[in-house]
Design goal:
- This protein has 109 residues and is an alpha+beta fold.
- It has one domain: Winged helix-like DNA-binding domain superfamily/Winged helix DNA-binding domain (Arc Repressor Mutant, subunit A).
- The chain contains four helices and three strands.
- It is globular, with a radius of gyration of 15 Å.
- The mean pLDDT is 91.
Length: 109
């Protein structure tokens, strides 16, 4: 099981943005979705998630708004901004190139 510190620099940002591209979510739901979509290989703790969300909000790539969660509690929901969608497209393309290059080396080395 990987820890956020084991992830390549910037990967957590990419994962958060990709999850938010699907729909707005609160922090706990973002962490759950990352775990679920990775087959429980990646688990993101609060100590890594919330600073990353704060940084992404400061950079203008996501916005936050208080809403009522599915269990009737007040929660901060995050959504992608137009600038965040552009950044995500660029970063996802770079990640695909990087992942393909690493796969080639692992496969043939």
């Amino acid at each position: 099981m990987s820890k956020p510190t084991d992830l390549v620099q910037g990967t957590l940002d990419l994962l958060i943005l990709k999850i938010l591209a699907l729909e707005p979510r609160h922090g706990w739901a973002i962490a759950q979705r990352i775990s679920q979509m990775s087959g429980d290989v990646l688990r993101v703790g609060q100590s890594a998630l919330y600073p990353a969300l704060h940084k992404l909000e400061q950079q203008g790539w996501i916005r936050a708004e208080w809403k009522t969660s599915e269990n009737n509690r007040r929660a901060k929901y995050y959504s992608l901004t137009p600038a965040g969608r552009k950044f995500l497209a660029r970063e996802a393309a770079q990640w695909k190139r990087l992942a393909a290059a690493v796969s080639l080396i692992v496969k043939h080395a």
